Amino acid sequence: MMKFIKNFRKDENGAVTVDWVVLTAAVVGLAVAAYSSIETGASDLTAQTNTFLGKQDPNAAPAADGGN
After folding, report:
1. How many CA atoms lie within 13 A of 10 on its CB side?
2. pTM for the structure as a whole
3. C-alpha dist (Å) from residue 50 to 16, 47, 56, 57, 67
4. In the 3-class helix/strand/coil scheme, how is 7-21 assigned residue by residue?
5. Contacts of 33 (CB under 8 A, 6+ apart)
6. 15-52 confidence digits (pLDDT tens)
7. How many Å apart are CA 64 and CA 57, to the nearest integer?
8. What whole-number distance in Å separates Cα of residue 59 and Cα of residue 55?
């Protein structure tokens, strides 16, 4: 039994797989955080655009100076 435990401790098969799993989980976590941030910003921009366009009067005459 002691020989099995020593061999198990020395055996590094699968260690690379564990590294890849950890790295992949980190990349996925960063992607989720980035998506959340982008979604929030896009939602805020959409709301601001909606508010701005809601205040516009489509029947109003254009500015005499060309809008400058």
Report:
1. 6
2. 0.51
3. 50, 5, 10, 13, 21
4. HHHHCCCCHHHHHHH
5. none
6. 778 889 999 999 999 999 999 889 988 999 999 999 99
7. 16
8. 12
Alpha helices in the chain (DSSP H): 2-10, 15-54
Neighbouring CB atoms inside 10 A of 66's CB total 6
Amino acid identity of residue 62, one-letter, is: P
Cα-based distances in Å from 20 to 17, 25, 27, 28, 63:
5, 8, 10, 12, 61
Q: Report CA-CA distances (Å) from 33 to 19, 24, 30, 57.
A: 21, 14, 5, 39
